[in-house]
Amino acid sequence: MEDLAYMDRQMSTEQDIKISAKNVQVYYADNHAIKDVNVDIADKTVTAFIGPSGCGKSTFLRCINRMNDTIDVCRVEGAIKIDGEDIYDKRVDPVQLRAKVGMVFQKPNPFPKSIYDNVAYGPRIHGLAKNRAELDDIVEKALRRGAIWDEVKDRLDAPGTGLSGGQQQRLCIARAVATEPQVLLMDEPCSALDPIATAQVEELIDELRQNYSVVIVTHSMQQAARVSQKTAFFHLGNLVEYDDTDKIFTNPEDERTESYISGRIG
Amino acid sequence: MTDTTVTPVSAKPAKSILEIDARTKKRNAAEKRFKAYGIAAICVGLFFLVALLWAIIQNGTPAFTQTYVTLDVELLEEKLDKTGERDIEAIKKVSTFGYKPLIQNALVDATEGMETEIEDKNLAKLLSDSAAAQIRDYVIANPDQIGETVEFTVLASSRVDGYLKGRVTREDLARDKNLSPDHLDLIDQMVEDGSVERIFNWAFITGADASEKRPESAGIGVSMIGSFFMMLVVLILALPIGVAASIYLEEFAPQNRFTDLIEVNISNLAAVPSIVFGILGLAVFIQFAHLPQSAPIVGGLTLTLMTLPTIVISTRASLKAVPPSIRDAALGVGASKMQTVFHHVLPLAMPGILTGTIIGLAQALGETAPLLLIGMVGFIASNYPEGVASGFLDPNSAMPAQIYEWAKRADPAYYERAWGGIIVLLVFLLTMNIIAIILRRRFERRW
Ligand SMILES: Nc1ncnc2c1ncn2[C@@H]1O[C@H](COP(=O)(O)OP(=O)(O)OP(=O)(O)O)[C@@H](O)[C@H]1O
Ligand SMILES: [Mg+2]
């Protein structure tokens, strides 16, 4: 079993590069939050970002779908390419980009609408369904992939905000996958979940890997070790170390990584 | 970590929580005092509210009833249509003066057998001046009734009305040229007889204003229409402009010096005295744009200027109150900024926007000062507008202006009507609020 999983990881890391960041700098006004980060994220892989609080994990994650554009004081320099195309090119419409790069946030944030409408919203605005039946299909598929279908199939008209925290987060994951993105960014998706829901989400992430490049920010070492093939360790805005997850957790090169993993800094 | 020695619990005997120590006592006393202040403040507020409402109701309700006299008037042919041809033009030539004898006759008949020393020609002083006009209008509308005896319910004079409402006493009339105490004795007898009664006065709510001498026939209806059209203008202009401006400022505009300046200015505008808007309206809409004076459209435009800052401020506040996570969620699935705002943010902000709009409208409805400068105060609102267009463009008054006008007039009967007008204004306001609450319920989502 162990060997098989290892093989699996080896294979997946040999995938093509999906996201490639070169000399990325991010400033919040005068605060230099990301310092010269270079990273290549592979396709059909789960990549974990770890690091102490405030080190810039979320900031870097939000660069990948240009969510930072919504923050006035935020300035991004350098180049981030997805499939070889620079996403900060002038011709890129961030709206189109975000349909391709889905995001799940730390705090579950369903729309104050029905469960159905939550999931159907993305496909609707992107015109993914020609008719109601198709839309129903997409919604069901997304909810199944979000591992929440069985719990909500009888109450699709109920408000999404009426679900429990864990259910809400899975609904948000379903909502994100409903638009068929190629990259899925997850910012601490399990921080509000109990161990059972966490296990479900982790299982889901592993499954999503078949089709997507998944980037997950997490504070849980165990979670990073469980779900990811690649791990990046951030510290004070620097990308300290980026390597195979096994390597990072068993034999890190940088001593800062080692002390963080062993619980000495953070 | 594991080798820390367990420090023994301090030797001091633990205090019982059943005893309340001095500090806690002090704290509790402070809290009690604060609560008492709060309750006292609320009581004072309530007292004033009750006093206000009581005064309004006490003074205003009499305006809703009016004394009417029922008379059988014989429409004498020789007075009204000498030729007997029922030629409408000839009938119209008879002025209200020509109807006086008929009324006098009717009054003499009505008071037949009652004890009085009033000369016949002075009997008509019991009635409003409008009685003759009312009968004349009837005759012109129904010329075939000439020669018949028709029952009319005509307004009593405001003094008679005041007597029945307890406003006018016999002592007051000692110095009065019009009515004498004898008239009042006669009225007492007529009330017993049933030909004089006080009934609910719809004409006060629906009617037009009257000249200084006929308070009994003055109503607030026409100026209510004026107010209605003004509110329409304010709603149609201020709501979309205000909401659009707020959405732009809140969601789209970059944060820089210029937008800061705009923000400060909007807050300042909300505090500008309304009379300033009045003179602005006079200069811009009347003198520059040559819109008609005293017209509800000008009033509405002026009040729009006044209401806009209120709506902008409350709309921005309710947009700000929408949690940013909703925006992130929408942007995250690839909605455009505009879709985010219109599909998610605006619906959530709607209840707040409606509340702000209603507050703004209510302010505008009660505003008198700007109307002073554009000629809506002092205008005698005596004609109903003929249609929607003339509702906007014809000179008219507004409810608060009408109330002010009445309060200014010398006759105490008008004073009573001013209070009555306030009740109508408050009911109008209440109706607006109820509509807003119903709309808000519609928009409000329970989740
Ligand atoms: N909207 C913002 N405006 C200004 N500064 C910000 C903003 N968001 C983050 N920062 C700053 O950027 C730095 C990195 O923050 P970021 O949220 O990326 O950290 P993080 O690694 O995600 O931390 P956590 O694990 O606590 O979520 C911090 O110093 C933070 O103060
Ligand atoms: Mg974060």
Run of helices and strands of chain A: HEEEHEEHEHHHHEHEHEEHH
* Chain-averaged pLDDT of chain A: 88
CATH topology group of the domain at 16-112 and 183-261 in chain A: Rossmann fold
Terminal Cα span of chain B: 47 Å
How would you classify the quaternary structure?
Answer: heterodimer
Structure description:
The complex is a heterodimer of chains A (about 270) and B (about 450). With about 270 residues, chain A is an alpha/beta fold. Chain A has a domain at about 15-110 and about 185-260: 3-Layer(aba) Sandwich (Rossmann fold), CATH 3.40.50.300. Helices cover about 40% and strands about 25% of the residues of chain A. Chain A is built from 11 helices and 10 strands. Chain A has helices spanning about 1-15, 55-65, 95-100, 115-125, 130-145, 150, 165-180, 195-210, 220-225, 245-250, 255-260, and strands spanning about 15-30, 30-40, 45-50, 75-80, 85, 100-105, 185, 215, 230-235, 240-245. In chain A, a hairpin with a 2-residue loop joins strand 9 and strand 10 (about 240-245). In chain A, helix 4 (about 115-125) crosses helix 5 (about 130-145) and helix 4 (about 115-125) packs parallel to helix 7. Chain A is globular and about 55 Å long. Chain A starts with a helix and ends in a 5-residue tail after the last helix. With about 450 residues, chain B is mainly α. Chain B folds into 2 domains: about 65-200, no CATH class; about 220-445, MetI-like (MetI-like fold). Chain B is about 60% helix and about 5% strand. Chain B has helices at about 20-60, 75-80, 90-95, 100-110, 130-140, 160-165, 170-175, 180-195, 200-205, 220-250, 255-270, 275-290, 295-320, 325-330, 335-365, 370-375, 390-395, 400-410, 410-445; strands at about 65-75, 150-155, 195-200. Chain B has a 3-stranded antiparallel sheet with strand order 2-1-3. The relative contact order of chain B is 0.10. The model of chain B has no long low-confidence stretch (mean pLDDT about 90). Adenosine-5'-triphosphate binds near residues 31, 33, 53, 55 and 71 of chain A. Magnesium ion binds next to helix 2 of chain A.
